[in-house]
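During the second half of the funding period, the structural biology subgroup turned its attention to how the target accommodates small molecules. The most pressing case was guanosine-5'-monophosphate, which had performed well in the primary screen but for which no bound structure existed. We therefore specified the complex as follows and requested a full 3D prediction, including the ligand pose.
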Amino acid sequence: MSIFTKIINGEIPCYKVAEDDEFIAFFDINPNAKGHTLCVPKQEISYIFDMDDDHYLRLMAFSKRVAKALEKVVPCERIGVAVVGLEVPHVHVHLIPISEMKEMTFQHKVKLTDEEFKALAQKVREAF
Ligand code: 5GP
């Protein structure tokens, strides 16, 4: 079982920002930038390009909705998108509010306190 399935099942906490029947979005625990969010299908699939077309397109539509909510709440030039999956083999779309290219590199990290994560998650949930 992946760590993200444990989050989906409520066994591990997360800062949730959006959810529907098929997908969940929560903040990355080690963010490249403030508001760095992961959009995850509830079905545990390892590799994004193994998803069937309709499921993949719904994930992208969900990610777009989350990105639009992030845009409203997090000051940034735009929302960068990345799919990696080398650390967690459960499909996830990284949405990263960026103003500089270095924020798309996974060596660039920022720290948020528990209170900051919670307050930002609340704002994004309201904007979703
Ligand atoms: P990737 O698999 O795309 O290379 O990276 C996985 C991402 O998931 C990383 O950015 C990492 O910080 C994040 N991550 C790993 N474990 C957890 C976790 O338990 N909770 C949350 N919210 N994010 C996690």
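Two results from this model are relevant to the next phase. The chain has a mean pLDDT of 98. The longest helix spans residues 53-73.
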